């Protein structure tokens, strides 16, 4: 585990507003950001239950799939990935995420999008047990009570100086952990990567306070959607700060925060902490798509 540090963003904002980004993306070279936090206690629980295998779910470019594959290998588990989209079964070599997961020992089961929607059904899980034997089930995106417990460790004593803590939201686990560990004077703002209002109910399952709000205006059309404006923003931010952002989660969140600053959403003198939740492994796959669409590619440290 590498040390996480808070990096000030050296961009001048009006009204004496300052931005700092918590570099959770640097926590581990392959299990970065919130994936490390979410898996920490789940892996301990899997060992306590003497499970030899981890089974989880994800899409073609899932950060979660890549993280489970590597963490499982590192911790001595077999790993099984139930992948959304049966058309991907013969495309592993051309998909950087799936190729990485396979190289780290993950076995795949490709299912149709219709079947994938059944992933929470008991009958579906039982069929998987019949096929793969006993396993420890890690939910899609990794969110459960143990994941939230891990995410409660993101904020530390040095973060008490911040008025606002902002993060991207996928399944709601990360923001729930931040909500639970935030101080009374701190407001947690979540920026969903998906369309829809269902996340409020998901977060309320785990969150123990009311110190939070979701801002749903920056999903850029939905999960995995990206346009030229976002690409240019992410690349310009990287040029100014040397901080790479992923286009699915953190890039949209940072875009949203800076846009809200320009619209005077935050009071003067606000100190804002941005949580970098990792996800940079997905940039290779996204750049393949962007080249096909003849759009600029995303810049990274690679």
Automatic annotation (TrEMBL):
Domain Tryptophan synthase beta chain-like PALP residue range list: 18-278
The entry's keywords: Pyridoxal phosphate
InterPro entries found in the cross-reference section: ACCD_DCysDesulf, TrpB-like_PALP, TrpB-like_PALP_sf
Cofactor dependence: pyridoxal 5'-phosphate
Entry similarity comment: Belongs to the ACC deaminase/D-cysteine desulfhydrase family.
Record protein name field: 1-aminocyclopropane-1-carboxylate deaminase/D-cysteine desulfhydrase
